[in-house]
User: What shape does this take?
Amino acid sequence: MALIVQKYGGTSVGSIDRIRNVAQRIKAERDKGNQVVAVISAMGGVTDKLISMANELGQEPAERELDVLLSSGEQQSIALLSIALNEIGVDTVSATGRQAGILTSGSHTRGRIEDIKPDLINNYLAADKTVVVAGFQGTNPDGLIHTLGRGGSDLSAIAVASAVKADLCQILTDVDGVYTADPRVVQKARKLPEISYDELLELASVGTKVMQSRSVEFAKKYGVKFEVRSSLNENPGTIVTEEHEAMESVVIRGVSIERSQARVTITGIPDTPGMSGKILGSLAEAEINIDMIVSNIAHDRLARHSFTMHTNDLGRAQSALKKVLDEISPEAEIETEAGIAKLSCVGIGMRSHSGVAAKMFESLGEAGINIGMISTSEIKISVTVDEGEIEKAARVVHTAFNLDD
Ligand code: ASP
Ligand code: MG
Assistant: This one.
């Protein structure tokens, strides 16, 4: 007998029929002799609907009230799923975040899980009941409801799995698992049997959205191994786990793309202390997220900085920069380029293999694709290319690293 925590997202419980389907899946686990704690989201679309109603009534609805309101979405779905389970003979009880002992800190609408006191869940399990827990919510030490940020049910599931010491934690969703690349772009993409926390986090930071990053960070911190799999079929998914030696034999785990990027280059910056801080500070103040940064000094002893950002931020970045540049130097100039995209290769194997970047660049060169900027971290190499070439670039690199099916 195993204790399994299963998380079902909003799409999986999005209609009466789908709730019945989830109930059948849980029953199948019970029939195998396993115990189940299900952590679920609100029915798909409900959270958005509640937010838009709040925004109709108030210009800036109080966050305390938003938490009371939004947490009601999950309160509906846990009761409905419990009813469906009891109907097919699975003895089930629901638990709100508070009843499940989920204790939070932080502020309203952005709560963090501090601790879980799973006494009630454990009592129900001891009585051999199935428990359905509301995701996305908990209570703070004053007993006020906190929600955990959009997509927060993933976090609830990982935390509950850790608290009840589950044998297995499954994130059941509308994707089949984690792929070597987006299958819509790279037709030969493969589902990965396994990926490390860090690789999934890096892929998420460059555009591969599988689940909320905070939950992956939490899983890493508490060593919760979990599986991402489909709620619509029985296929095995992808195990997300701590890295182990065998994982390093693969050089690149996956490639990811980000479209709609823009580059800003500033030239003619005096080569004196404080300049970079001023320039980047002005962008930070304008709340612009910049991504890749490349700087160097030209033969005339003037520095140049290039960075990338989302195209939507380009206009705001230009006005923020104009102001500081007027201050720092009459020679400084801004040059911009939109219509670029970023391609990243991620893999812990690059720590122990050499020539990984060279191989990536060579494969792009042979395909006639020009590389703009380059940046690297310990387990990631990113380049920019023309947006029109990004899909081809992804396929070329995917093939070069033997990731094709
Ligand atoms: N219902 C919440 C949302 O839509 C939490 C979740 O789905 O994970 O963001
Ligand atoms: Mg959702």
The pocket of magnesium ion (ligand 2) is lined by residues 9-10, 41, 47 (CB under 6 Å). The two ends are 36 Å apart (CA to CA).
